[in-house]
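lol ok so funny story. i was supposed to be doing the assay writeup but got distracted and ended up predicting the structure for this chain instead. priorities right. anyway since i did it might as well share w the group, maybe its usefull for someone
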Amino acid sequence: MYQPTLEGTGTPETRAGQRPRPSRPLPFTLRIAEAPAPLAGAPTLHSSAEAADYIRPQIGRADREAFVILHLDPKNQLLDVELNGLGDVDSSAVYPRQVFKSALLRNASALIFCHNHPSGDPEPSLCDRQLTRDLVLGARALGVKVLDHIIVGRDSIYFSFADQGLIDDYDLAASAAFPGQIREDGEPYDYDDEPIDGVGFADPGGRSALRASTRSNPRNLPCPTCGAKNRLTPLDRARGYQCDACADRDEGRLD
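and the output, tada:
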């Protein structure tokens, strides 16, 4: 039987039926990385307004678009602030591969994306929406949470994808794209049924989003205030919402 030579590969020739062995030991080092500590004096971000107030002084008056990533730990404490991209007056190149590479290297469990509009108008463009959707989809595949994408202008106004419900919408679409993810306990992983631990961008007692129910997000839960059945979806309950009737009563619209 013909036996091909393995010269030049660092593995000697062997007889038929034998496994080749390296001619020299292969270097192998096992290292356990130390968990990164939050930035000294960095805030814990509980809302989109706090995130916008934090990033506005840094990029709000820039003469070109800057794309910044806030890396957060499980308690929303700031681990690092990264200037991921610097563009022109109306655009900035963002590469999801580099976005998630930096997130994994920093061991971040959650991300907030921020960028500015030099024009002063924070309304997102179609490209901004498509980019955010793609980033939420990629984060879902990696098990990283996207809390928000915030666009700031020169003044105090800002646009929050989370406040407008777009992050939830993109996450629901991503859950349909990755239906078979498994948690550490062996159960199917579904962010739609995952309770928020109280440090997310929730507004306890606020108005229910009452989004269109889907198979993965059905409206089958009672209102925590009045107990009325089939008023909330799992996303609504996880974010601390109540039904619209209770919200109207709290706001003085109903007697």
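The domain at 48-201 is CATH 3.40.140.10 (Cytidine Deaminase; domain 2). Residues 126-142 form the longest helix (17 residues).
back to the writeup now i swear
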